[in-house]
Please model this.
Amino acid sequence: MIRINAGLAVPEDEIEFAVSRSPGPGGQHVNTTDTRVTLRFDVVNSKTLSEAQKARILARLSTRINAAGVLRVTCHSERSQKANKDLAVERFAVLLAEALKQRRVRRPTSVPRNEKRRRLEGKRLRATVKKGRSRPGRGEE
Model:
């Protein structure tokens, strides 16, 4: 079981792992071992998620989910397959936890009266400074 938050844990049989050759540094080692790990989680057909949770995940992680509703998390930063697998699982848990968090509703507020007064006063000061730069007698006819 992979713990996502206090009320949700995803069983490991709903997660699929695939390994492939990893790009980047590593010398001769990288050419012979499959160290990149891709974690796949079928959000649409998951038995542990409610319909509301599925909808929220699909909306918030839409850039990481393909047309079939499968979430992909890839990790290839470490040189060992096990370390990359652990990192992918960790990233997956964080992604789901962030997607399922309730966001506070923003209540619109008006600009405080004091802020309006201060802004207008600043504009007035700026106008007098600019007016003081003009040549005497110009503009007055």
